């Protein structure tokens, strides 16, 4: 069983939390790192508990906060080769 929580969806930023009993993933990182941390806190999740970020593609509303997030947290990033090349 897993749970999906939309942390934000729209042109200003996209991010969702997917949780299983063993794993917590963010899908995309389009919200600011600060907003993501605040919205995770509202869900009772510490950002240090995020096991990875899965990027769907490189557009700013999906990956715009990645640089700041990676400076604050050592979260692994997963994406396809073309997205990695663009980023």
List the SSEs and their pairings:
Blueprint: E1 3-8, E2 15-19, E3 24-27, H1 33-42, E4 52-54, H2 60-63, H3 66-72, E5 77-78, H4 81-86
Parallel strand pairs: 3-4, 4-5
Antiparallel strand pairs: 1-2, 2-3
Strand content: 15-25%
Write down the domain tally. 1
Distance between the termini: 32 Å
CATH superfamily: Ribonuclease Z/Hydroxyacylglutathione hydrolase-like
Percent of residues in helices: 25-40%
Word description of this protein:
This protein starts with a strand and ends with a helix. It has 87 residues and is of the alpha/beta class. The mean pLDDT is 95. The chain has helices at 33-42, 60-63, 66-72, 81-86; strands spanning 3-8, 15-19, 24-27, 52-54, 77-78. It has a five-stranded mixed sheet, covered by helices on one side. The chain has one domain (3-79): Metallo-beta-lactamase, Chain A, CATH 3.60.15.10. The radius of gyration is 12 Å and the shape is globular. 31% of the residues lie in helices and 23% in strands.
Keywords:
alpha/beta; 23% strand; Metallo-beta-lactamase, Chain A; 87 residues
Report a brief summary of the structure.
The chain contains 4 helices and 5 strands; from the N terminus they run E-E-E-H-E-H-H-E-H. With 87 residues, the chain is an alpha/beta fold.
């Amino acid at each position: 069983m897993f749970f999906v929580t939309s942390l934000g969806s729209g042109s200003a930023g996209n991010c969702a939390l997917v949780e299983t009993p063993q794993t917590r993933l963010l899908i995309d990182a389009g919200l600011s790192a600060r907003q993501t941390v605040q919205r995770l806190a509202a869900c009772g999740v510490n950002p240090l508990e995020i096991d990875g970020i899965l990027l769907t593609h490189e557009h700013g509303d999906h990956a715009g906060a990645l640089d700041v997030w990676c400076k604050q947290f050592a979260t692994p990033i997963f994406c396809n080769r073309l997205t990695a090349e663009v980023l």
